[in-house]
């Protein structure tokens, strides 16, 4: 299968991007999965129950073992989650544990010493049971638990200093369908080789046992290899290939709904050129989403008009007024707000984004009368690293594939104040009004009541535009003549146990 290079070593709690998550999903079994109706189904968990949305009891299924033969136990989850949440370990997904009671003790703030190693809210009951006490009610907690950050870690992951070792990050021991055959040397290895774990207790593939991820810097090169049967699965076909892929691949081409969103982001925290929301609105109104969706993507994208994707409950058609194409108003407002005369737009060249980013740049040149430079980064990991380090000051291409099926997942991890340091808030956007509304949604007694508050938080994003939603994804994938029954799930990951040799 084609894959872009993961941003970091293969540690679940430090993996917040799609390439690393795809790989780790083959190696680990999550507590829950999601069915075709976006409903939660238990995977490694036997049950996850609560009476008050505060205290949750997780019981594990029997039969799961680590790839080194040790049994999977409740302590493995508690150890992994405490490690992830500790600010001293600087894990990219640490923010996802912020609702657990005692998270604050592991995150006293920069320059302050962490004086405990454990969150008060995590307790092991016995080898197959642990409880999670949240700081406040959160009706979506069970739904979250299919996300990468919530995978467990074996004892072997930790060194004498209590840190996850580099050796483990290169060859993670999981409790899922596949085990790594050898360490993955990031930056030099062009493949990651895996084998089916023979003691995996759930469904295994029929008739094959070896999986190889091939790492590409170019989606176009990967597509050429797919056509030549040199790679068997490509789950993110480049825009340049979509118009011809159906004819070239026939029934081996798939176009299906997807819960992802494509954005243009602004580094608000450290570049004041974009500080005035009128500038951001004008840039948004200058983008011809409909033409980009129809021509660049051959109709396999939809113009975005909300921060919540239509695949998930909570989407409202036409919610974002500034997402409507209005070049006249855009130019007038940009001039009135004294928008910058020069704009730069960065994107990752390994993801097939060149065409639509060039189209956006042309829109901005024509409609705002400004100079626009397009800046390709070789890998997605590179632009993420520069944004993390607050080095890149231009606008940037960003995308979001959901971690779990909830409107909240389009809000907290990307735009909350807490996600600036340990989440995916690359804009550095912070709004108390937004944070408070998300908290109200979290604490509502039912998902339905929570959704009203999430939509109000969505309205704050629409008003402030820290990112510009440009399009809603569809998943465009293809497979070679060597395989059949290839399914891509809601999290944009392959259902490996279903894949068969053709």
Automatic annotation (TrEMBL):
Per the UniProt entry, what species is this protein from, by scientific name? Nonomuraea corallina
Alphabetized InterPro entries for the sequence:
Peptide/Ni-bd, SBP_5, SBP_5_dom
The chain positions of domain Solute-binding protein family read 40-419
Q: Which Pfam families match?
A: SBP_bac_5
Q: What name does the UniProt record give this protein?
A: ABC transporter substrate-binding protein
